[in-house]
Amino acid sequence: MQRRLIPSTSALLAFDAVARSGSFTAAARDLALTQGAVSRQVAQLEAQLGVTLIERSGRGTALSAAGLGYAETARAAIDLLGQGALQATGQTPERELRLAILPTFGTRWLMPRIPRFVQRHPEVTLNFETRIGAFDLREDRIDGALVTCRGLWPGAVLTQLIEETLVPVAAPSLLGEHGGRRGPGAEFSLAGLPLLAMSTRPEGWAAWWAGQGMDGPVPAAAMRFEQVATLAQAAVAGMGVALMPALLVQPEIIAGDLVPVGPEAGSGHAYYFAQPEPRAGVPVKPSIRQFRDWLLMEVDRETWV
Q1: I want to staple 45 with a disulfide (CB 3.0 to 4.6 A). Which of 11, 117, 132, 154 is the partner?
Q2: At what angle do helices 9-21 and 35-49 cross, to 10 degrees?
Q3: 0.85 cut: is pTM over it?
Q4: Looking at the predicted structure, is the pLDDT value of residue 72 above 90?
């Protein structure tokens, strides 16, 4: 009975493509088949199992209750078959890592440290791609991702790496134009200086201002920037005081292009390493554990390059 219910690979691939994409049209495009061919393969699978896997209506398609459960099984089976095929041909998928990285964090924090991972694990091949915003690691076949915003990653296991702190920085030229004025303490006075902010941290200045116990209303940011790199460039050009993640602005501080003009304060954000939740019967790739453990070692080093 169990052998009779084992589907063909083509039917399994067709169903998986529809389950992942949500439509027969998109599945046909992914598989380079006609829509009719994909529909026939799925219908054949449903007839073989004796259940409806995909509900079809004028509004589109949706997985049935049975389809939701079978989609997980189908994906796991396809992954195992793919891994087995690579191993049979002498290839080693467990030694390859497909990683998604945030552009600025990847460029400024991760890449200067990657040579140390390569030296420690020369057998692992790293493949990087830049991602912004939430996505499904399992559906996109991503082995691991460096992310922020903990609540946006259902179906993923998150390991916290670094708690983010924000620091106000400015170009020496801007401070010189304003006489290098200092407040009651050692910090420069920000009164009258234009403030620059990140769009992803809209409450950053208000939180930092309140944390310093400053009186009076918080000045509105003169400009907002989506990318940290663009914000840093604006600050270096003397356009204002930028509130930036401390670990990402180190290159400009070390080079003397920017100067801290106040203490660091927590932003409420953190950086995490995200990996897909393990599947029953599917072992976690050793290279994923190796990369996660190496990241934690780098955090412990506290050598912000």
Answers
A1: 11
A2: 110
A3: no
A4: no
Considering the chain, what is the average pLDDT of its residues? 83
| Interacting residues of 290 by C-beta distance below 8 A, sequence separation 6+ | 121, 124
Dump pLDDT digits (tens) for 202-229.
788 888 887 776 665 666 667 888 888 8
Question: What are the extents of the domains in the chain?
Answer: 9-88, 92-305
CB 19 within 8 A of CB 63: yes
Residue type, 88: A
What is the domain class of 9-88 according to CATH?
A: mainly alpha
Give CA–CA dist 87/302, Å, rounded.
39
Q: What b-and-e string marks burial along 115-152, b requiring 16 or more CB atoms within 10 Å of the CB?
A: eebeeebeebeeeeeebeeeeebbeeebbbbbbeeeee
Q: Which of 126, 125, 132 is nearest to 104 (CA)?
A: 132
Relative orientation angle of helices 24-31 and 9-21, to the nearest 10 degrees:
130
Q: Which of 201, 206, 284, 202 is nearest to 246 (CA)?
A: 201
